[in-house]
Every structure is written in C-alpha cells, then in structure tokens.
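Consider one such protein record:
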Amino acid sequence: MNVTNIGILDSLSDLKDLDWDGDIKKKQTGLNLLIVCLISTWPHNGCEIQECRSESFTLHNLCLGLPQIKEQEEPNSTSWPDYYLDQINAMMTLVSTSGEDEVANRTKVVDSLKTALRTQPMKFVMRFLDLDGLSVLLNFLEKMDYETMESPIHTSVIGCIKALMNNSLGRANVLAHPTSINIISQSMITENIKTKIAVLEIMGGVCLVPGGHKKVLDAMCHYQQFASERTRFQVRF
C-alpha cells in the first residue's frame, strides 16, 4: 500500500471541512480506488490524515466507520425541551399555587421555555413538537386553577404559544391542531389584561394566514358559549 501524507487535523470535527469531491479525489492520479486512512492520536495532538491506495476499501466505507462526535447535552438539561415539559407537567399535578415565591419560580421556568422557543436552533422547536409540547401547553391552559389563571404563569404560557406562532413549523402545528385556537380563546376570561392582549395578538396573527379568519370567528363563537356571553365579541376589558 502506498501512503502519501495529506495533512494534520486539530480534531475529528475538522473532517467536515474537507472537500471530499475536490481536494481528495483529485489525488487519485488514475487509480481505481482511493481511501482516507486515519492514524488517530486524537484527542492527543490531533489526527493525521493520509492518502492511501488500496483495492480492498472505499472512501465511503471508511468514513462510515469514523467515530461520531457528541454535539448535544443530555435531554435533562435546559438546552432541551424535555426539561421544560417535565416541569410544566409537574405544575399541573399541584393543586394550587402557594405564595409569591412559588408563583415566581413557576413563571421563571415558563419564561425560560418562551425564550428558548424564540432563540434556540430549529432542532429545539422540532423536538418540542415531537414531544407533543403544544398539547402540554394546551392541557395546562385547560386544567389550571383560578389562582394560576390570574397569575403571570398564565401570561407566560400564552407567551410560549405566541413564540411558537413566530416559527413557521410551530405555527403550522398550532393551526393544524383541531382545538388549539378555541382553547387559546378561553384565556380571555381572565382579568389579567396582559394575558388578554397576548391572546388577541395571537388571534390577530391567525387572521393573517389562509383560512385563519374563519378559525378566529369559530373560536369567538366558542368563547361566547364558554364565557356565557349574550353576543359574540362581548369580551370585557
């Protein structure tokens, strides 16, 4: 086997920066097969990449055997939606909020999820939706007690849905959910003005998408019955 040195990499992650079709294959010099062999000293002093000529292996076969680099933390960290969904599910098992400190702690958790849905990479939102995170938020809105309904926790949960609506994938899931807009509309029954405004902002956004105007009208009819209003749009501010 003939071996010709190509270069030194700082780490295995630098493999992705190589131009496999260009820099490597140009070195074939008329041979039938070309593979890249790793003489791995990583994490000690990097990895030496060598050009190898062989009739037994292919570049594709060898690359599949490269060790995978861990890119993410464990799902129980705040970098994953799993943590926040576990916390919100735990909130629903408690009978009622007790004291300002407890309300503040719960609000902080939900606010952190709201921020993550706005700022984390798309894979965070995708995993959130894969874990049925939208249903977790909607279930919370349906099952919360009166104290929670009038607290900042309620406003923050609506804020999480609003953050989802600002994402194309999240918005599609909210609109595709059969009862999401109806459940969101029920939050207008609170006396908390901030929560009502957040709900109306979501409704206004839904009106701008195809078919959304009818969804909002249907939701207002639903709210009329839910709040025992005499006429539609009789929401008190």
In short: The chain has two domains: 3-64, 81-226. Residues 1-16, 20-72 have pLDDT under 50 and may be disordered.
